[in-house]
Amino acid sequence: MKIMLSAGEVSGDLHGARLAQAILAQAPEAELVGFGGREMAQAGVTLAADFASYNVMGVWEVLKNLGRIRRLLQRLTDFMREERPDLLVLIDYPDFNWRLAARAKKLGIPVFSYIPPSAWAWRKGRAKACAKLAEEFVAIFPHELPVYEAAGAKISFVGNPLVDTVHAEISAQEARQRFALPEGAHGVLLLPGSRRQEIELLLPDMLGAAKRLLRERPGTRFYLPVADGVDEGALRAAVDAAGVPVMLTHEARYALMGLMDVALATSGTVVMEAALMGLPAVVLYRLSPLSYFIGRLLVHVEHFSLPNILLGESAETELLQDEVTPERIAQEALSLYRGEPHRQAVCARLTEACRRLGPPGAAARVAEKILAAARRHADHGGTK
After folding, report:
1. Would strands 281-285 and 262-266 be described as parallel, antiparallel, or unpaired?
2. DSSP 8-state code for residue 288
């Protein structure tokens, strides 16, 4: 039985790795192939292509890279034609993955969608289009179900894998020693994202906010976890130019989160990870002017932070586009330092948001569904 997984960015690579591990735990004989990154490769997936060379965001950025993306699509299509997997599993990365799904359908390869496109937020018509291409869907947030159910899709929510994976890697005492953070000292985590565009658009303002926080609360320690595939030299150059003492780290990210007062974070999965570690965030989002203009026409959501979306309220502060300034970031961050009443209120709401992610064991439950779908196809002769 051969299963192809397709994930095109860091978060998808992590989800794909957890899924691969769960699949192989239940079916060691399964052969896993696909498109992903280092985490998936280490989990046992034989990669046809690595996403690191294709990871771009924003309308203009994608347009500039259309030629390379089209070549990748053809490369993976040829791979499917040669390998004849029993099932193609799409893991997030919507626009590219659904083009790949259309190619798979023409080849007679069934499609399973894990983390489907956010049709609840924008382009709701996508739900109907996707329902015609995929046999089954599994969402990782409960609010994603209604729009797909209305489109006639077979979709379920069986929990979120972050519940299982987000835990402190080491004890708090060991973490304090490793990160040189004395008991009682304030800590701020900088999370500018993993994409080059995110870092360029948001890190300078984060560092500007850090300088202001240092003036307001002398002794505050700053930390920046370096994501896989990120140019550490460029990060260090930006930090040095800003003149802020920031420790770049590569380990025990979740344990570090548990020690911090507040995170300055680019909107994304990392904000939910922080919430699971009890860490409130000032959530930032900024696109290039063209991408933002187009996004305003297409996207209709009240919140963009995952905890806020789960709660349906503004528990955490969200700053968008021109609201992202060093002054505003620092102002919001100060209200989340340990000992501040506002921090306690925010953390209480984050606890409720995390509860809504469901029980542990999500990856294993998704793996069961994927294996059942692959076996159904293999039992009927597959595409061979």
Report:
1. parallel
2. -
Q: What is the CA radius of gyration of the chain?
A: 21
Q: If phi over 0 gives left and psi between -120 and 50 gives alpha, with beta otherwise, what is residue 339?
A: left
Cα 35 from Cα 72, distance rounded (Å): 10
Going by the DSSP 8-state scheme, the letter that residue 166 receives in this structure is -
Cβ proximity of 286 and 201 under 8 Å: yes
239: Cα within 13 Å, side-chain hemisphere:
18
Q: What sign for the dihedral angle of Cα 179, 343, 143, 301? A: negative
- 158-175 pLDDT, tens digit per residue, is 999 999 999 999 999 999
Do residues 51 and 5 lie in contact, with contact meaning Cβ atoms separated by under 8 Å?
no
Distance CA(56)–CA(178), nearest Å, equals 34
Contacts of 344 (CB under 8 A, 6+ apart): none
If you write DSSP's letter for every residue of 299-344 in order, what string do you get? Answer: B--S--SHHHHHHTS--S-EEEGGG--HHHHHHHHHTTSTT-HHHH
Q: Which helix (H) or strand (E) holds 375?
A: helix 362-379
Q: What distance in Å separates the CA atoms of residue 240 and residue 22, rounded to the nearest whole number? A: 42
Whether 57 has a pLDDT exceeding 50, the answer reads no
What are the pLDDT digits (tens) for 183-209?
999 999 999 988 888 888 999 999 999
Question: Which candidate, 25, 22, 53, places its Cα nearest to that of 37?
Answer: 53
CA nearest neighbour of 273 among 159, 357, 333: 357
For residue 83, give Cα distances in angstroms to 99, 101, 104, 175. Answer: 18, 15, 12, 46
Whether the pLDDT of residue 121 is over 80: the answer is no
CB 356 within 8 A of CB 142: yes
Q: For the residues of 167-187, what is the DSSP string, one character each?
A: --SS-HHHHHHHTT--TT--E
The token pair at 349 is: 């709401």
